[in-house]
Amino acid sequence: MLILTCRVGETIRIGNDLSVTLQDRCRGRVTVSVIGPVEADLYFDNVCMRPSVLPSGARSYLFSMLAIRRFRVGEIEIRVWLPGDAVSLAAECDEHLHVGVIAPKSLQVSCESKSQDVRQAADSTHALSGLVWA
């Protein structure tokens, strides 16, 4: 798992077709927008979400997460932690969110931000890079 530290408003790009934007955060609620490829469904709490379809054919989703802060787009899993959550990285800074990405090795992950802070979960044995390991 690759863990990125992001601020509200930043966008995480996964591969060429998937983007996840952290839209808002209010206490324990996080609002996320996702734009993904046509062939990949988004599952939140094991329920397939109904997308809006963009003119390009891509699928667009906008939803809030409260108690459950993980979702899947195709074979990619995304988890979000807030400061104070039971994750060692989450207690470090109040103005950030920590986003974990689990995806195939072949997909590159980048964050649209000047202050990107990429960290690796303790259970992984790979060196840090812009890749995510499954």
| Sequence of strands across the biggest β-sheet | 6-5-9-10-11-1-13
Strand content: over 45%
- Main beta sheet strand tally, sense and closure: 7 strands, antiparallel
Number of strands: 13
Could you say which overall geometry the principal axes of the C-alpha atoms support?
globular
Helix content: under 10%
How many helices? The count is 0
Total domains:
1
Average pLDDT reading: 79
Q: What is the succession of H and E elements?
A: EEEEEEEEEEEEE
Task: Explain what the structure shows.
The radius of gyration is 14 Å and the shape is globular. The protein is built from no helices and 13 strands. It has one domain (2-115). A seven-stranded antiparallel sheet has the order 6-5-9-10-11-1-13, with no helix packed on it. Strands 7-8-4-3-2-12 form a six-stranded antiparallel sheet, with no helix packed on it. It is mostly beta strands and 134 residues long. It has strands at 2-6, 11-14, 18-26, 29-36, 42-44, 47-48, 52-53, 59-65, 70-73, 76-81, 97-102, 109-112, 117-120. The N and C termini lie close together (7 Å). Residues 114-134 have low confidence and may be disordered.
